[in-house]
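Work package 3, deliverable 3.1, input record:
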Amino acid sequence: DIQMTQSPSSLSASVGDRVTITCRASQKISSYLNWYQQKPGKAPKVLIYAASSLQSGVPSRFSGSGSGTDFTLTISNLQPEDSASYYCQQSYSTPWTFGQGTKVEIK
Amino acid sequence: EVQLVESGGGLVQPGRSLRLSCAASGFTFDDYAMHWVRQAPGKGLEWVSSISWNSYSIGYADSVEGRFTISRDNADNSLYLQMTSLRPEDTAFYYCAKEGDTSRDFDYWGQGTLVTVSS
């Protein structure tokens, strides 16, 4: 199974800050990497698919990069509504696996 | 508008069975693979099972292999998860999710249904 390791597990940042979350795969997964946002009591929502493609309707302050084993989700100009947990997920091979999540808190 | 609505969750004793359903609308159901993903309360996301558009390709997480069965009814736009020999560690919110067009991401999710396995 491909292991996905996210860091950090949590962070606290101020409105307007630039935030970076990293995700590392235990083996190469090309660009089969997706990012999800989950708010408390809600289902996850896809933000970025194929490592760097922005899902329709998602604000452009969200961006993704990387390929192979190392990936990054960046939130530029952090907003209060970005307070949530973020998960990476590989869709290169089954079983599909998720990172353990990163909780983003607004100071 | 794509909608996925799960049902069938509840409290069940260890060793018993439960069947989850997911009613899909707003897209051509039989064009897409579908998935079940679960989340134990306060924990992360775990993929459970997937089924191709024509039911020919099915996969399970090791944690549920041999106990859970995924199926779909394309005529009825419905996805199912038959869960048997339930264990306390199966307690979770269960989400059905539609697979995306290109990257095999989960582009739409239902609201989830809670399964609690406890005596």
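Chain A has a mean pLDDT of 97.
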